[in-house]
Amino acid sequence: ETGVTQSPTHLIKTRGQQVTLRCSSQSGHNTVSWYQQALGQGPQFIFQYYREEENGRGNFPPRFSGLQFPNYSSELNVNALELDDSALYLCASSVPGQGTNYGYTFGSGTRLTVV
Amino acid sequence: LAKTTQPISMDSYEGQEVNITCSHNNIATNDYITWYQQFPSQGPRFIIQGYKTKVTNEVASLFIPADRKSSTLSLPRVSLSDTAVYYCLVGPYKAAGNKLTFGGGTRVLVKP
Lengths: 115, 112
Hints:
The complex is a heterodimer of chains A (115) and B (112).
Chain A: E1 5-7, E2 10-13, E3 19-24, E4 31-37, E5 44-50, E6 53-57, E7 64-68, E8 74-78, E9 87-94, E10 105-106, E11 110-114
Parallel strand pairs in A: 2-11
Antiparallel strand pairs in A: 1-3, 3-8, 4-5, 4-9, 5-6, 7-8, 9-10, 9-11
Chain B: E1 9-13, E2 18-23, E3 31-38, E4 45-50, E5 53-56, E6 61-64, E7 70-75, E8 84-92, E9 106-111
């Protein structure tokens, strides 16, 4: 059974640019959530995708968008990058209904640096 | 979702027991308490979850008093590899949108 895979592991972008981060879910998991983790803070929920539709969103502006594909993999897109977008972006896959329990599997994240 | 308060950091030594207490005064009847562990540059990893009394697994124990307004994660005989950030989360078993709400966590440093 494979875990959650994220790519790339590290990325440096310039302010104003756009970025796409990718996530492959754990086998059997059809729900994907994205989190942003600034240095020294806990992860913050961005949004979740289930059956290729957005299913819940945190307090993030519309320039944060996502996609989920039929194979349950997912993308996080961020437009007009700002310096404050520098963070570790985490993807977590789960099975619906398992809520806050061990059903969540996190990837190792993508470290995005905006300069 | 209920807000949680936990110490910012704790130091310990190899072989000792580490106890981290989390306060969640406004926990709701249908809320569960879940703890995650996070190593640097990795995603959080589920440790343990409970509703009341005591839960134990191969990694840790979770103690929850009758009023459920706090909980204590106990890590027995820690090693250097237990150095990590530990997060206490409180929320319904089936949270709307299945979102996890993390606080700042407790940074545990295990010294030789």
